Amino acid sequence: MEIMLCAISNIASGGCSEDCQYCTQSSFVKTQIPKYKRKDIKQIVFEAKLARKNQALGFCLVTAGAGLDDDKLEYVCKAVYEVKKEEPDLLLIACNGLASVEQLKELKKAGVFSYNHNLETSKEFFPQICTTHTWQSRFETNLNAKEAGLMLCCGGIYGMGESEEDRVSFRKSLQELKPFSSPINFFISNENLRLKVPKLNADEALSIIRESKKALSDTRIMIAGGREWVLGERQYEVFEAGAEAIVVGDYLTTKGEEPSKDIEKLRSMGFSFASECH
Ligand code: SF4
From which residue to which does the signal peptide run (predicted)? Predict the structure, then answer.
């Protein structure tokens, strides 16, 4: 079986004005995460080359913050352009918060393949985890990305205290958007976050993947943050459950598995890695 690997670069980290309760980049939370307004573009290109070496096909440029302004848009476009010049085969994903159709068209022009903007959870549960922007504004950004001609990467986070009804409702909303890929994150607790919920267990996490694939049969289900935390030794069972992609390397603010360990293990299990998008 062929699977797709993606890597993430956090190109603008921390100091976010929003109060998403699951996120250590919010300025409402006191954490020791690295904070910077702009990562050097040479460093981004270096990380992109490393991602390609680690068999990644997707490379996601993520900025903290509610959305894009002119400066940030220009910076992301420049980073995209420079990465594309050096690594033309990488599929670039931009993840820059709320965005208008015009802004998203600019990203597309610069070489972005897909836009990632997660709904995170159901519209009913969202107000309990964020009060500074609406779920609807997230949904609209996804519609904007489609209108701009970008592929859509839209998913969310499980294990934040949402009910089973919330999970069903969340997947129904994803069905409406029909994303090309859908990242599943599992909430990672942190002593500095206000959100205090029990950790998901591995069986529950695998069942979430199965239900997601059932609901989104034409979508590539990608397992992102929390894979190691929630699934531990059982993390490679995600493919049996319906996943076709994983994030390799580090996440935005948490450490991931060593890519070489993932690659070796996946090869030994008979997986090959997508080098182009079908
Ligand atoms: S908008 Fe993004 S970066 Fe800001 S707090 Fe929410 S999830 Fe974190």
Answer: none
Nearest-angstrom CA–CA distance, 275 and 273: 6
Identify the band that residue 241 occupies on the pLDDT scale cut at 50, 70 and 90. Answer: very high
Residue 77 labeled ligand binder: no
Which residue from 54, 4, 57 is spatially nearest to 272, judged by alpha carbons? Answer: 4
User: What is the Cα gyration radius of the chain?
Assistant: 17
Q: Are 91 and 83 in contact (CB under 8 A)?
A: no
CB 185 within 8 A of CB 158: yes
Tell me, using a 6 A CB cutoff, whether residue 26 lines ligand 1.
yes
Q: Cβ of 127: how many Cβ atoms within 10 Å?
A: 10
Residues linked to residue 184 through DSSP beta bridges, in sequence order: 156, 223
- Helix (H), strand (E) at residue 61: strand 58-63
Chain segment 166-225, per-residue pLDDT in tens: 999 999 999 999 999 999 999 999 999 999 999 999 999 999 999 999 999 999 999 999
pLDDT surpassing 80 at residue 250: no
| Three-class SS state of 277 | coil
Atom of ligand 1 nearest to the CA of 133: 1
C-alpha of 205 from chain center: 17
pLDDT tens, residue by residue, 128-164: 999 999 999 999 999 999 999 999 999 999 999 999 9
Triad 99, 154, 243: Cα angle to 5° = 160
Give the pLDDT confidence score for residue 278 in this predicted structure. Answer: 64
183, 220 in Cβ contact below 8 A?
no
| Structural domains in the chain plus CATH codes | 2-267 (3.20.20.70)
96 lines ligand 1 (CB under 6 A): no
